[in-house]
């Protein structure tokens, strides 16, 4: 069927549906006929903004026949607000199967249902432009078998990628996601790794580039014109002369132009910034491959450029940090190992970054985890990039817990354990046992199981703790959790205190209420909670008005009421402006600290205050913690930047030692074996000290936000193997290895219903489940 036959079919359908033919549609057929006669091939472009509701059914009749026609391709384009009902768009798009080439919906503002249907059902197009659409959740689980180019630039509602969002896109080669809210390296690379054909990716773009390919700009007229438009001095970026070739370029990014006049320039991470004509690369031709290899081996002592936020004003500072030829090579990635000479320099301008671009070692991480990628952010990936990526990744990140290198399924680990314990039925059992190392240590199996569980999914399992949000007081008021603690021996139980002074004991597995203590108008926000280990039914609670009480949960009724039960309750002398309580390992004494420079010691059995230690710090003390195995040693952390270790046997007049942070300390706690102190200061300053003398053992080097109110809290999980860290101004929780400092995972928290970020104010590691984490204030429990 030729184009004229399609036009006749359209006119007949208009007559059938009693509508007037659209002159714009007739002109599209006319242009296609001319194109066919001149070139032998033709494509038809349909513009949605020139259609009305009456055109839909005649066009559907035409589209049903278009796959068997002489038309080579059909493009559906959107240029301005449409005049017809958007519910007709999906039937129109889904009518074409083989000939649909480009679907351009950029700047379209359809209902969320339309975008969800599109993602759920899929399309047969080759190029899909959804730039600046208001898609709330990217879950493109539909069939997109022919799609090779996808543009999601400026979709600012996209904050994360679901695990199956790209599951049916086997041909996708080019993906652009500039200026989205995507921030998580782990889940992003896990989702992108399911795209077997992906070779070009960008989360930020070169200003002179309209597509995802490598930037063609060099020191010439094109680059100068681009810089003159910006009124800025050029940034000289190192680009390899070795560029990747893309075999399929049958269509370009139509309408995928970057917005103009949008903010400051952002340099591409992973590239060196130097002043034009500085001459720092003039004498590099004599450097050998051996020196390059040696440089990479020592990269641990070099801070590469991706550590620095892109900043035009920081060029001179960054230049000063490059002190020798090896650092220049390692950070600029500019050495051509194949030819033994420096690569050419080209102008590169990065623009419209997504938050993920500001993650430390962003480029190296992406290159290491996406080995098939050839171009990232319009910047070609060279052999040096890949080697640098592997080196940086192995130094700063853990692929799997406990240094496991290969993923295993949970079933495989269980099978190996069974084979290891029933070796009589397994041929060559001794060789097998030696190869898999089972039985070498009591914790080897549990660690292997933990690694298998984490390796099976980059996305954690989120379990809302319904008990927190579904327990109501009189007047349908919800309980507002403020502080919580796991039970020391019963994995099911947890206690939490509220902002209104209630103490609530729950079974967090079944969601059942175990005990409820009303505030009785004498307790404000509960800030201190601590279970007794030798007497597991007893717990200590302290509120910010100084009230201190010891409860026995066996006497607490499991109902919400205003009736106060006094049975089994011990009341202690008040400690004004209380912020923290902690019981020693002997369960006979506890300490209380508050918004003061003093610490009080209480006797649990007599209920009396034994001592008040005054002026222990220069500023208020946030937290006091006893050691796990010594009833005499305790640590204090204060806003005066100091952490101090004390010994009750010395009647604390002076500390055993003092360790300092660069900002006010929010938290301190002992590792379960008491070998270390974990210190958390304002704005992500997290360090691990040797408990014996306070020397620095590990600086976790978590990026700061610049906020003086970003209060950071950190705790141990999996015994002393890992730490979790979160801050009140950030919606991210980080897991780091205590022995290497390497990052295992980052988890970003969002409310599933509203999509709003959730900020961390209180968190704990689950003492009974490997890599289990809970955030009570957010009402979310995370299991891995």
Automatic annotation (TrEMBL):
One of its GO terms (cellular component) is Cul4-RING E3 ubiquitin ligase complex. WD repeats lie at residues 614-649. InterPro entries: DHU1 (IPR046377), DHU1_N (IPR048514), LRR_dom_sf (IPR032675), U2A'_phosphoprotein32A_C (IPR003603), WD40/YVTN_repeat-like_dom_sf (IPR015943), WD40_repeat_dom_sf (IPR036322), WD40_rpt (IPR001680). One of its GO terms (biological process) is cellular response to UV-B. This is U2A'/phosphoprotein 32 family A C-terminal domain-containing protein. Coiled coil: none annotated. It comes from Populus trichocarpa. It comes from the Eukaryota. Residues 359-377 form the U2A'/phosphoprotein 32 family A C-terminal domain. It holds the Pfam family DHU1_N. Keywords: Repeat, WD repeat.
